[in-house]
Amino acid sequence: AVVSTQSTGQQNTGLTDLNSLATVAQALSLPIICGDERDMLYAKFNQLQAYWGHGTVILNQSGNTFPITPESPFSRFKSVGYCRLPSTKNEDGLVGIFIGKTLDDVTKNQTQLVASLHSILGGKQEHVVCCDSVKSINATTTEVVVYVLLRSPTGATQRIPATDLASVLTSANIANQLKSQMFVTNVISKVAFTFSQLSLYLDKPPVGISPVLWEQAKQENPDPVKLIPVPLVGFKAISERLRLQKEQSEAHFARVELIGKEVEDIRATQANTLSRLQQLKRKHSELTHRVLQVMVDVEVQKKAGFSLQPEEEQLRVQLESIQQELNAPNLFKGRLSEMLSLIRMQSLAEPGNANSTQMESGVLASIHSHLSRQQDGISHLLDIIRDDLQHLEIIKQGLQEKVSA
């Protein structure tokens, strides 16, 4: 007996019949061909073809055969993946044209392709063919997404609906021109599914996919709103899916690298902006002091020859009061002198002398903290007094110049 492993190229419609399934199952488990132990060898070879989803199984001694396709229930190379649902509307006018050329060839001749498509559609002045995107489907097929603008005499433009454009491109005359001149293999309209179309697709399992697997795929859909399960039947389909996922991963990786570079550029720009901001802050502070000085000079010129205002007199009294409080012997100066004396006594006292003054660490810390606060307060008051004295000196000079004038 001679076994053929070539595909017949015909769809296996008989496998849906229970009798055919039973016949093929017998050929896979216990064929009766030679009537001896060679039948087990035929059974294993039939099983291999059935699991692979390609070839022809031998049924009986008469040499009857049955073709096996990837859609066969016995094929093992089956799975279900997920694709993103199209979100474009019919009004967007997007139509996908599949061309039997590589991506590089289509990209290089994109302008000529658009011009040829415009010529095939009639070359009307009011029609403008636009290319939306170009992507590779496989090694020999490229998808070009186009839309056509309809320009009115008033200058307004409107896209031709996707279904209307696809209907024109799939008409017999234009389809033949597309095939002969542009090597177009298929044309589809990029329109989102309606609810009824989506329900009809999900309710009926695709050919070659068991209802149990299809139901499981629907339940495990990570995002039913944006994703839809699609069958992957046969080794070729699974291999193609793996290739597409690899290309998509590489595209994502390239995009992540591009985003990383953009983030680095933004960080560098931010650093430069912060440095520039600090410079502008310093310049603003300098200009503020200059404006304040000018305001003081203007105020001195205005008040020259006049007596002190009540608020100025009040400020002078406050400054004199602060100065007297600082110089009072019983207040800050007296306390500081007493504390300094205690510290000197402690430093000069001998460790073995019983009469030496001993102070606890907590007391020393409290004294040190109190002295620090007093010193900070005094420094702040002195700064205020110096600034006020400078202002008073400026006012005094202005008055003297006014009187002498």
The best one-word shape is: elongated
The DSSP helix count reads 12
Report the end-to-end length measured between terminal Cα atoms.
Answer: 135 Å
List the helices and strands in order.
HHEEEEHHEEEHHEHHEHHHH
Radius of gyration: 47 Å
Mean pLDDT: 82
* Total number of strands: 9
**In this structure, how is the largest beta sheet organized?**
5 strands, antiparallel
Tell me the structural class.
alpha+beta
Low-confidence stretches: 1-16
Percentage of residues in DSSP E strands: 5-15%
**Helical coverage, percent range:** 55-70%
Brief account:
The chain has helices spanning 18-29, 38-52, 103-108, 110-120, 162-169, 172-182, 195-203, 211-219, 235-303, 310-327, 332-348, 361-404; strands at residues 55-58, 65-68, 78-84, 95-99, 127-136, 142-151, 157-159, 184-189, 227-233. With 405 residues, the chain is α+β, with helices and mostly antiparallel strands. The longest helix is centred in the middle third of the chain and has 69 residues, at 235-303.
